[in-house]
Amino acid sequence: MTKRILVTGTGGAPGFDLARSLQQLGCRVIAADCDPYAAGLLLPDATGCLTPSATSPEYRAGMLRLCATTRPDAVLSTVERELPQLLGLRRQLADLGVTTWLPDQAAIRACGDKARFAEVLQRSGVPAPRTVLPHELDQAPDGPLVVKPRCGQGAKDVHVCRTREQARVLCELIPAPIVQEYVSGREFTADCLVDRAGRASVILRYRLLVKGGLAVVSRTFTDPEAQECVRAALTATGATGACCVQGFIRQDSPTRVVITEANARPAGGFTTSVAAGADYVKQLLRGLFRQEIDHGRLTYKPDVTLTRYVETLTSSEGTTR
Known about the structure:
Layout: E1 4-8, H1 13-24, E2 28-33, E3 47-50, H2 59-70, E4 74-77, H3 83-88, H4 90-95, H5 105-112, H6 114-124, E5 131-132, E6 145-149, E7 159-161, H7 164-173, E8 177-181, E9 186-194, E10 200-211, E11 214-221, H8 224-237, E12 241-249, E13 257-263, H9 270-275, H10 280-288, E14 305-307
């Protein structure tokens, strides 16, 4: 039986690529986004649907209405801000016959709040950048610092500065900021799939070229120490399902691997892992519908490079939206 999957956030790379990957597996996709200009709404053979923003008071009613109308078998969210909302809707979605696979509230908070993430990793002994809140700025490490929103995404409002005084000014300009030690080295993303028993498959790839927070050129690699650190971060946060972890590998420091971020959703470049042989989306589907994940199908080849490019889906004349 062909599955109908509602994918949210199809205006971003994770949602767009997930929707198209599901289509390639024979699923019927309902591509949703809160932006009427989202590219995923134009995917051929997908049903494009608008949803309220995750921060809107209309989100829950709108999502239930959409599911009652389109009757998906399951929903896969690629927008972290939606996850607390969907968690609160889990029973009502189940009553509509919609399957979900969501982390618990603690995992959502640990991944969605960068200050909380740093605290969780520090408590678990996972190497992470030293992190302080604005009122703790005098405790920030010497040297370059990064100021970023504690609940941001896509590298928006992320700034590097040299001094605490500069960081103090940036904290006045950036909403709900944190200040972190600047980490350099080879930046990587781990595409992860954590089954319901907590077993994780980890596919590593270098972020060779990054634009707007998205790795547009990635290359797979293997590194046992990095995989161990990623798995430790996943255990510390309690993340489950499709998720991703970012970090750096340093050659000039006693702490070789540093974990900087985790997201309770697929990464924007997971197609690199698929190109390297990992059966990522099919195994995600199996886990979603409570079938056993075959971690043996999530092995991959190193040194596979994938380059993203801009694609024109359609053109039109006049005002359509």
